[in-house]
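For practice. Any example?
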Amino acid sequence: MSLHKTTLDKATAKNKRLDEISSLLKKAGEEIIMPAFKKQTSAHQLSKAKNIKDDGSVVTETDLKCQQFLQHELSILYPDVAFLGEEMSHAAQLDCLNSGGRFWCVDPLDGTSNFTIPLPHFAISLALIENGNVIFACIHDPVLNETFTAEKGHGAFLNNNLITAAPATPLAHTVGFIDFKRLEKDTAAMFATQQIFRSQRNIGSCALEWAWLAAGRAHFIIHGGEKIWDYSAGSLIAEEAGCIVTDFENRHPFHSVQLSSPILAANHLDIHQQLLSAL
């Protein structure tokens, strides 16, 4: 087999996977998430629709239904790839992590609290992890119908259009996503009171914050502890768009495969280094 034909076959397989996964996430958004979101018309209905998990996060019937749909469809399309979802048991998640090999890492509804208010900021996040590295990622926003994708080494895209991180700018002029809730109190107080950047946001969906950072809609992310399903897809999309992604110790979040990690991501190395020093 010629090298040219091998290269074409690999490209065809990648394009097929991109089309299949993008279509799958769009279908889940259109047929499961958005109909449920539109039905939420009163606080009484919302109170019945959600439960609080042991870690304090919210889970709804829609989370579970979406995860079941994605797991089933992925098992048909890719029967040799394992599955790790946010709504699995902790023990099952650890078993998947410890088994190595390839697995899908899925958050079926990132921003569930927003979904239940109802605030229209939530997304589906999916990554393919192979031997401890993210090699493919897809984040779909069903409200805006925006699909962010990345293949390791091949750039980041929004609805098939190439995207890049925001250009370099002084830290004092930046706007970033900061989750104060999960920072140490002294660190949170420092970022809240010292005017080292222009402004901050926290929209309640890690996946969207990653996607929007990659698309140049913000300059950095600071989060004291994201789960692997929060950062796996987004970290690859951001890196492929040109962002710097580490934990608070300046290590890549996938220096080891773990269930959670603090996150520091920035559109430019200078911004990243200044924020790292502040942390």
